[in-house]
Each structure stands twice: as C-alpha cells, then as structure tokens.
Amino acid sequence: PEIAVWRRDARRWLHRSAHAHIAPADLERLRQAGEGPVAVYIQPDRTSPIIEAELYGPLVDIAPGSATVGVENWRIIVAQTPDAAALP
Fold first, then answer.
1. Using alpha carbons only, what angle is made at residue 18 by residues 17 and 20, rounded to the nearest 5 degrees?
2. Per residue in 27-62, is it b (16+ CB within 10 Å) or e — as a string?
3. What are phi and psi of 5, to 5 degrees?
4. What is the pLDDT at residue 26?
5. Cα(20)–Cα(59) distance, rounded to whole angstroms?
6. Which end of the chain is more exposed for a tag (fewer CB within 10 A), N or C?
7. What is the residue-wise DSSP string for 14-68?
C-alpha cells in the first residue's frame, strides 16, 4: 500500500509506501478487525486542520517478550502542480 498527499501550500507531494507487501491473508485479517491497509483521519478545523494517513504493514503475532519492526519509505516530491505523473 502507498499514499500520496498533495500539499498545495508547499507545492509538493508527500509520498509514503510501506516497505513490506501485505499478503491477501493479512488484508483479510485487517478487514476482520474493521481496518484496511490505509487509515485516514481528517479533522477539518479551520484554525489547525489535520490530515493523517497511516499505512499498515503485514500483521504479525508477537509472542510475549518478542518484538517486530515496520519500515515506511517517505519521499518528498517537489512539483508546481498536483499532477500525479510526478509520482513514482
């Protein structure tokens, strides 16, 4: 999964992609939990609007005392217009 957001005020794209691919079985687990591969939160407040986009990686069952790591790749793409052709 990936997401791109055009920042009109900064004339740039914010582009995020997850490092790992989400398998169909993980997508099904996300759906069962009421989620999807991308979560978007929007608070359209006039004084301080917030738009947050989260990418979910593969679901991992973690045993007590264990750990896992997720990686996201961020890219800032300068562009004069919101033409998606500038995206990778």
1. 140
2. beebeeeeeebeeeeeeeeeeeeeeeeebbbbbeee
3. -125, 125
4. 81
5. 11
6. C
7. EEEEESSPPPHHHHHHHHHTT--SEEEEEE--SSS-EEEEEE--------TT---
Q: Is 64 exposed, middle or buried (0-12, 13-18, 19+ CB in 10 A)?
A: exposed
Alpha-carbon span 75 to 69, nearest angstrom:
20
Closest C-alpha among 48, 38, 46 to residue 72: 38
pLDDT digits (tens, 9 = 90+) for 32-84: 888 877 788 888 887 877 878 777 777 788 999 999 887 777 889 999 899 98
CA–CA separation, 13 vs 82, rounded Å? Answer: 8
pTM for this predicted structure: 0.56
Q: What is the pLDDT of residue 78?
A: 92
Nearest in space to 56 (alpha carbons), one of 24, 17, 87: 17
